[in-house]
Model the fold of this input.
Amino acid sequence: MASQPASPFPQTAADAPSAVASPPLPTVGIVGLGLIGGSLGLDLCRQGYRVLGVSRRLETCQRAVARGAVTAASQALASLAVADVIVLCTPLDALLPTVQQLLPHLSPETVLTDVGSVKQPVVATIAPLWPWFVGGHPMAGTTEQGIDAALENLFLHRPYVLTPTAQTPVTAVAQVERLARALGAAIYHCDPAEHDQAVAWISHLPVMVSTGLFQAWLREPSPTVRRLAQQLASSGFCDTSRVGGGNPELGTLMARYNREPLLASLRAYRQGLDQIIDAIEAEDWAAIAEVLHQGHQARPAFLE
Ligand code: NAP
Done:
């Protein structure tokens, strides 16, 4: 599925072998100064990029400037007319309206990219409107949101997925790769639909399963047992319920925009649960041991 380009190793602009030979740093626009947009801006500003931010609320723009996540910020998309590369970091449902409002302000070869967690519908909608669009997804985050949650080095050594199509200009892809390398991320290329299937397994399904754990605990009918479980909960429950406790807006948009792959992964998960229930009901301890053994063996290899 995913393939890495010839040089996947992180390289920051500051690490470039010859600063004299490097092309000048592009001016970067960021729309949506939240966790991801703010974190991108913090790293790029630190490396000397001129970063122009746009966000919905004035307070967010001011906070982004104060935090050093942008060189300047405004609520007006027209302020990005001078940007060479624009990174769309809004929630998924704001991407298309943002692009539609941006189009009149773009120069013919302005590179557009996004960071949305779902790629197929985003690429299918935006690429026909702007050929210099490169779908992107940095695979990093926290359960927090907003500009105050932005972190330096959030993307360091993390995968950064790009989903160019056969029509995407190679120079546009190179511009976005340059930014990803400046963040210290490891670049992967893949097909947008395969990206969505893969992230359904490792990101979107875990969010739903994790939130399902919490829902299951809430269904315990005895308040005494529920309270006791809460008091006894240790790292295991904290780890397994963590991703379900993240930004609810983000989780809902993942489900909405990645509906079919998420449903397929949830159905496969339910099938696995049914098998476990059947085995326990039948007191088939060999079957349970087999499932647990598979997980015990497969997990270390998976995490490698
Ligand atoms: P976030 O912290 O809520 O940030 C999004 C920001 O966008 C908000 O702070 C909001 O700022 C601004 N915004 C909302 N609508 C806007 C609009 N129409 N125009 C301009 N700005 C607008 O969310 P996030 O976690 O950074 O997620 C942003 C994107 O990153 C999403 O597409 C998500 O799929 C993707 N992503 C998230 C993660 C993750 O783990 N969180 C990981 C990878 C990718 P105001 O304060 O100005 O309203």
In short: Residues 31-37, 54-57, 60, 89-92, 94, 98, 115-117, 137-138, 141, 145-146, 247, 250 surround NAP (CB under 6 Å). The radius of gyration is 22 Å.
